[in-house]
Design goal:
By secondary structure, the protein is mostly beta strands. The protein folds into three domains: about 240 residues, Jelly Rolls (Sandwich), CATH 2.60.120.560; about 120 residues, Jelly Rolls, CATH 2.60.120; about 325 residues, Tachylectin-2, Chain A, CATH 2.115.10.20. Helix content is about 0%, strand content about 45%. The protein contains no helices and 52 strands. The strands form ten sheets. An eight-stranded antiparallel β-sheet has the order 1-12-11-10-9-16-7-4, with no helix packed on it. Strands 2, 5, 6, 8, 13, 14, 15 and 17 form an eight-stranded antiparallel β-sheet that branches. Strands 18, 20, 46, 47, 49 and 51 form a six-stranded mixed β-sheet that branches. The relative contact order is 0.12.
């Protein structure tokens, strides 16, 4: 039996709690490794926020979820290092909406090894933190042990001073090859933590210790080895719980579920209202059936003056890139563009040997959207000067970028915005402009004028670099499309919130499928709401297709589930053989697009290098000196993403049951050289008198706002009459329809 060295500051009479150790109801966190999703990185994965440090430099040991070995079930958490230079850390975290517990009970099962004993030195069995993962909470349990003895001891890190105090050997002679249950009871009134430990259901009271964080909930935990200095060992953890006191009659809360977004888009509720907002034919949402009709994606037309914006200043480095926005002033008609200037630096100090990311967000102005000027704002210093057009800039200390897997000492000032949105109706003028910036994960910046910004703090931590946000006006929520890794490929995750500040945990949403090339990956996506449907510009990374990225279109009626009917490019890459300015890598700037007359203008950045900065001949370019990234424009007919069309033999597209809310039916259609007629029927398909295809005056021209007319009818049927609409096309295309 192991030995307990009581170090309690409480009266010995209180050791009667030896008899009845508290248990946790897991209301805050229950890590059951059975629910962990393998190869999914970048989310709170069934309570596991961090399993190792993917893609970070350094030496690493083992971090894994076991198969076939656990205290209960088949899976447990495991971390191990064999040298002090290695790191092998696991972080656990409560879900974002986890409730607070008035009295916290933390319990878990632990054993160092399966069979052969190992050396344990400063090995972290448990270290509690607040949600920020840095503020200490509860106590720390540190293991020391030897290979020969096969035993280990537990030291306790507690509060009570400026630095944590260490109580050495509060538990000794623990066998490395057996499971021990540790139970921590936090007593907020006394600012103490009571500790029990022992074989399952035979736990004994160990002592009472000073809490490291008196008014802080222990919502995250570190396990294993979080340093490359002095720590070495091994450990298995299972059935980790944080919650309130569990009564004997209460049910234990189930383990955290797999972080998979399980949402199926329900069919539309018929009749579907058709009002002044336009209905596009990008999916089959409104379509009952088609005969002789084919839907077709239309790519943008590249402007002949491209590229329009090029790098020319030191803070723009070798490329002006996407990750901003373009807005048009409704009163003056002027354009304002936010773009990224990519200007990396060597670091970190003192050796300065790694090329580290650094970027700024800058602004350009235009009267016509074609010719752009870069104003001197005198707002931010860059290399000692303020005469620049920078609006969001690196900071030396507070606003440093670092990924989830990177230690803070390699963080540097990458501050360019991933996405910027404008909210003219926002009641708080300080939040009219909003930017998502890679600081401490992803932070929200707000501004009254789009020039002077304030950091509102970190809002999304479970995401990687190509993460963007958008707004869903149907549900009234903000949502994020986050970059994840799944199965060794880039994938997309989903998070949402009601107020733009308090975000849900990220869940895996989707990745490439059988219709994509086997080596394709989804690198990023920029979403927006257009009329009645969500649109998305997908950045598709074609690894075996020349290591290039182009833009595809996806659509959704609910951004929790995207439709990828069309897999051809919406913005095509330029010609590689001619070294065109955008042959290698594209990303969006203007999302949503800017409407100019009867066109939609899409600003995008293009590169004449591949994803690994190689020119058409395979030569590695100098990222800091060569010019490889520029900005151009693609135009599209208004509503012109997808058309439904028929050839000379004609075809018919029939809608599901609709309610036409106004008296005139309008179409965006091209019937030059052919014709388009409309017929109305009841929900069973019976023609309505006076509204047959023969009664309809044929449309024979091209127009974005054509009115449908019937010979003997001045208006559509009543606004409460359910109908089906049949579009009869011959050598014609239909893009959208609505009522007025």
């Amino acid at each position: 039996m192991y030995k307990v060295m009581h170090t309690s500051s409480l009266d010995t009479r209180r050791r009667s709690c030896d008899l009845v150790p508290p248990r946790s109801n897991a209301s805050v966190l229950h890590v059951d490794a059975e629910h962990y999703v393998d190869d999914l990185i970048g989310v709170n994965n069934a309570g596991v926020l961090w399993l190792g440090e993917p893609w970070a430099p350094g030496e690493f040991g083992v971090t894994e979820v076991t198969q076939g070995f656990a205290y209960a079930g088949r899976r447990a958490l495991h971390a191990a290092t064999t040298t002090v230079r290695q790191r092998a850390m696991i972080r656990l975290a409560a879900r974002g909406e986890a409730p607070a517990a008035a009295t916290q009970v933390i319990e878990f099962m632990f054993r160092p090894v399966r069979s052969r004993p190992v050396r344990l030195a400063d090995w972290i069995v448990y270290r509690g933190h607040a949600r920020d993962q840095t503020t200490p909470a509860a106590i720390g349990l540190i293991a020391h042990g030897g290979m020969r003895s096969g035993r280990y001891r537990i030291d306790v890190q507690e509060g009570g001073g400026r630095r944590p105090r260490v109580r050495t050997g509060v538990l000794t002679d623990l066998p490395q090859r057996r499971w021990t249950r540790f139970i921590l009871l936090r007593c907020p009134q006394a600012a103490t933590v009571q500790l029990w430990a022992g074989p399952p259901d035979r736990e004994r009271f160990v002592g009472s210790f000073v809490d490291l964080g008196r008014n802080v909930d222990a919502l995250t935990a570190r396990l294993g080895d979080d340093s490359s200095k002095g720590i070495v060992g091994s450990g298995y953890w299972d059935d980790f719980r944080i919650g309130g006191l569990r009564s004997r009659s209460a049910d234990l809360r189930a383990g955290e579920p797999a972080p998979i977004l399980r949402f199926r888009q329900p069919p539309p509720v018929e009749p579907i209202p058709v009002g002044k907002a336009r209905h596009l034919l990008v999916d089959k949402w409104l379509i009952h059936r088609m005969r002789g009709v084919r839907r077709r994606l239309h790519a943008v037309t590249k402007h002949p003056a491209n590229p329009l914006v090029v790098p020319e200043h030191p803070w723009e480095g070798g490329g002006v890139l996407g990750g901003g926005a373009v807005f048009r002033d409704e009163d003056t008609g002027g354009f304002r563009m936010y773009y990224k200037g990519w200007c990396p630096v060597f670091g970190p100090p003192p050796k300065q040997q790694r090329l580290l990311k650094r970027s700024v967000t800058a602004i350009a102005l235009s009267d016509d959207g074609i010719r752009w000027v870069k104003p001197k704002l005198n707002v931010h210093l860059f290399e000692g000067r303020r005469r620049n057009n920078i609006v969001i800039a690196p900071s030396d200390r507070d606003d440093r970028e670092h990924e989830l897997w990177e230690p803070a000492d390699v963080a540097i000032g990458a501050r360019a915005a991933n996405s910027i949105s404008y909210h003219p109706d926002e009641p708080d003028p300080e939040q009219r402009y909003r930017a998502l910036v890679r600081v401490q994960g992803f932070s929200l910046l707000t501004s009254p004028d789009g020039i002077h910004w304030s950091n509102r703090g970190s809002i999304i931590s479970q995401a990687y670099d190509s993460t963007t946000t958008a707004f869903d006006p149907v549900r009234g929520i903000h949502y994020a499309s986050t970059k994840l890794a799944y199965g060794g490929k880039r994938a997309r995750g989903y998070a949402e919130c009601a107020d733009g500040a308090r975000w849900s945990d990220t869940k895996y949403q989707f990745t490439v499928d059988h219709r994509d090339h086997s080596d394709d990956q989804i690198y990023g996506m920029d979403a927006f709401f257009y009329e009645t449907v969500h649109m998305c510009m997908l950045r598709m990374y074609h690894v075996d297709g020349g290591d290039r990225l182009d833009i595809q279109l996806a659509t959704a009626r609910d951004p929790r589930r995207w439709d990828r009917t069309f897999r051809e490019p919406f913005i095509l890459c330029g010609e590689r053989t001619r070294n065109e300015w955008d042959w290698g890598n594209q990303s969006m700037i203007s999302v949503p697009p800017v409407r100019v007359g009867d066109e939609l203008w899409f600003y995008y950045s293009g590169r004449n290098v591949d994803h690994h900065f190689r020119d058409p001949g395979g030569r590695q370019v100098n990222m800091m000196q060569d010019k490889w990234g520029r900005i151009g424009l693609g135009t599209l007919r208004v509503d012109g993403f997808v058309s439904a069309g028929a050839g000379r033999r004609g075809g018919v597209l029939e809608t599901k049951t609709l309610v036409l809310q106004h008296r005139r039916l309008r179409l965006n259609a091209d019937a030059r050289g052919g014709e388009l007629r409309v017929a109305l029927t009841d929900p069973e398909g019976k023609p309505l008198p006076g509204f047959s295809a023969q009664d309809c005056l044929p449309l024979t021209r091209d127009g974005v706002r054509q009115q449908v007319r019937f010979r003997n009818r001045k208006a559509l049927p009543g606004t409460n009459v359910p109908v089906r609409v049949a579009f009869h096309l011959r050598d014609a295309r239909l893009y959208a329809f609505w009522t007025e």
